[in-house]
Amino acid sequence: MNYGKKGVRRKQRALHAKSEKWGKKFALTFFNVMLAGIVAVGILGASVGFGVFRGIIDTAPEIGNINVQPTGFSTFVYDIDGNQTAKLIAENSNRIPVTMDMIPENLAHAFVAIEDERFYEHNGIDIKGIIRAGVKGITSGHFSEGASTITQQLLKNNVFTDWTKEERGLNMDKIERKIQE
Q1: Is residue 122 part of a domain?
Q2: For residue 67, is it within any domain?
Q3: Per-residue DSSP letters for 66-100?
Q4: What is the count of structural domains for the chain?
Q5: Most buried residue, 18, 106, 156, 169, by CB count within 10 Å?
Q6: Which residue, among 91, 142, 152, has the nearest Cα to 118 in the 3D structure?
Q7: Is the pTM of this model over 0.85?
Q8: Quick one: which of 97, 90, 86, 147 has its CA closest to 118?
Q9: CATH number, domain with residue 149
């Protein structure tokens, strides 16, 4: 920096120059307009996203009185002495109904641990699992990680019965169903 007479006079002229004042005013105005535009786009984007989310939730099927009991059971054929001679198996009917007291406690815990390890920690939606599956899908390009909880699987199989017709991979029908679940 030049602190001599000429340097000080040049600095004074620059401070009082109209073109530099207008340049700084223009830059400040441009910055303010850009900042306001970014905030407006952010608010608009959040509003649209919230509206789409509410629309998807509002179009979800009613689940107030769903019956989650399996409908098809296996049929056993017994002879005159009570010995099983055959087991008739039809599509969607290979089940034997049991109550919780007939299942060993360790088997119930093993099922929960395999299907939904944080089942007792969340209320039906595993946010950590969804984020993990999303990050894995974005980084690998394949959305094949599971993030469905036992609750979501129950809904998918009893309320959203047309999910088997969805295309593989990531599509809007699948995203909409996942949000509704």
Answers
A1: yes
A2: no
A3: ---S-----EEEE-TTS-EEEEE--TT-------G
A4: 2
A5: 156
A6: 152
A7: no
A8: 147
A9: 1.10.3810.10
